[in-house]
Amino acid sequence: MLNNIFAKLRKQMTITYSLIFCLITTILVFATFSFIWWSILSIEKENFHAKVIHEGEEWISSKELPVNDTELNSGNTLAYFVEPDGKTVIVDQLGTLPVSRALIKCRKKWPTVSEQSKLIHFTDETGTKNRYLASVAIIKDNNQTIGTLYMFKSTRVYYATAENTLKFLSVLLALLFGFGNLISYYLSGKSIKPISDMYDKQLQFTADASHEMRTPLTVLKLSTESIATDEESKLSDFSKETLSMMTKEINRLTALTENLMTLARSDTNNLQINFTTFDFSSVMNKTIQQMQILANEKNIHLTSHIPEKLMLVGEQSSMKRLIILLVDNAIKYSPTSSKIDIDLAKKNKNIVLKISDEGEGISDDDKTKIFDRFYRVDKVRNRSNGGLGLGLSLAKAIVNEHNGKITVTDNPKGKGSVFTVILPAK
Ligand code: ADP
After folding, report:
1. Which of 135, 167, 334, 416 is deepest in the core (most CB within 10 A)?
2. How far is the CA of 379 from the centre of ligand 1 (A)?
3. Ligand 1 centroid vs 260 CA: distance in angstroms?
4. What number is the average pLDDT over the span 80-109?
């Protein structure tokens, strides 16, 4: 059980560490990518604007066209030169491709003189999405404005490179996440180790200490019993009463050490349970018969419905202990002259044990806590009842060892509780 807790804690820590690692690396990688992309674009915008000015000057000095044929035919670089009125075309180098026609249609998107350069997006008649870097400059000859030169440069290559870089980064991130997961798993294991070692030692100590206490307690128990049954001893009434109180406390202490030892051993997976196939119905009948005496003391009506020969794979003594713990609780927490019903049935591949009482019931909040160690709903009253708060945690440990489940619900009759144990049948 304890191993489960530490495994769960390690899993939670691994998930948390991994998530933090993934978040930080993703942010870092994408922030770096965006910064590089933004820097390249800014430089390209500046360079392209300088090229437009340069091509304009070349045209004035030698009438050299801004775009060469190869660039024009491929649609990579295009140019459009108009007089200051914006209508009279001086040079039209937009070409004859679909992109050229689409470009002239979206003149509103072209950069203004103050913007100098900008990225424009548009779709041509073939449905192709185009992204161009567009730049504009006023071309002057001896302080006389000749016209406005627009030039467009396809950014296809940039976007293709960016796309490939993104794919590469995604693969790199996936690898980093895997690596981060392994590191997180290793680190969380390392952080838990000292605590789990300390817990192991503490559990071992509890198991050893309670084991060592068994012999002196047995001697004490036998001694008090022999004094009580010694007919020759002349004990005063006060001594008899003290002796009976001592026997009661020794019994309580014996039960506590037994429970502590079983729980500590179950935590360290050291229960050494011997699984056999046995007649669970018969064990139940015999145990309930023994419990009948306790029920009679409180005038409680104990009924049971147990089908014959329900076989179970498990440890007989642990199962007997489980029944005693649950029925004992039902008796302890029920008023006199009430009813307790014990029901055993086979459902599909499971054996279902239900113990219903008409006691005070358990609040929803307490239902989640009563299986914890040393948890008692009403501490003052339970102490007088002999309760130590270990019974249900022990019952849960036994059920877990048998790969079963234990739950508590309200009694549908309106008063009391129902403890249900589901165990895999043979
Ligand atoms: P305890 O030794 O105190 O009985 P348990 O672990 O067996 O310890 O039970 C924990 C607490 O759960 C008890 O103190 C009691 O308040 C509550 N409880 C257990 N069984 C019943 C029941 N059948 N009806 C009402 N309360 C119960």
Report:
1. 135
2. 10
3. 17
4. 92
CA distances from 337 to 301, 314, 325, 354 (A): 7, 34, 20, 20
Output b/e per residue, 341-354; b: 16+ Cβ within 10 A.
bbbbeeeeeebbbb
CA distances from 95 to 78, 80, 83, 92 (A): 7, 10, 19, 8
Asked whether the beta carbons of 71 and 153 are under 8 A apart, the reply is no
Segment 121-152, tens digit of pLDDT:
999 999 999 999 999 999 998 889 999 999 99
Find the length of the chain: 426
**Which atom of ligand 1 lies nearest, measured to the CA of 379?**
14
Asked if residue 259 has its Cβ within 6 Å of ligand 1, the reply is no
Which residue's structure tokens are 């500046």?
46
Identify which of 264, 271, 253 has the alpha carbon closest to the alpha carbon of residue 216.
253
Instruction: Give CA separation, 79 vs 40, 93, 102, in Å.
Output: 22, 5, 14
CA of 205 to the centre of ligand 1 (A): 27
Taking the C-alpha atoms of residue 75 and residue 77, their distance in angstroms, rounded to an integer, is 6
What separation in Å is there between the alpha carbon of 279 and the centre of ligand 1?
28
Residue 300 near ligand 1, beta carbon < 6 Å: no
The pLDDT score that the predictor gives to residue 382 is 55
Range of lowest pLDDT (31-35, 255-259, 385-389): 385-389
**Ligand 1 near 149 CB (within 6 A):** no
Q: Which of 87, 85, 93 is nearest to 56 (CA)?
A: 93
Give the burial string for 38-52 (b: 16+ CB within 10 Å, else e). Answer: eeeeeebbeebbebb
Segment 254-283 shows an average pLDDT of: 83
Cut 0.85: pTM above it: no
Under the banding of pLDDT at 50, 70 and 90, the label for residue 205 is confident
> What pLDDT score does 373 carry?
85
Q: Rounded to a whole number, what is the distance in angstroms from the first to the last CA of the chain?
A: 23
Say if CB 22 and CB 177 are below 8 A apart: yes
Distance CA 217, CA 168 (A): 71
Could you tell me what percent of the chain has a pLDDT over 70? 96
Res 380 pLDDT > 70: no
| Cβ 392 vs Cβ 373: under 8 Å | no
Tell me the chain's radius of gyration from C-alpha atoms: 43
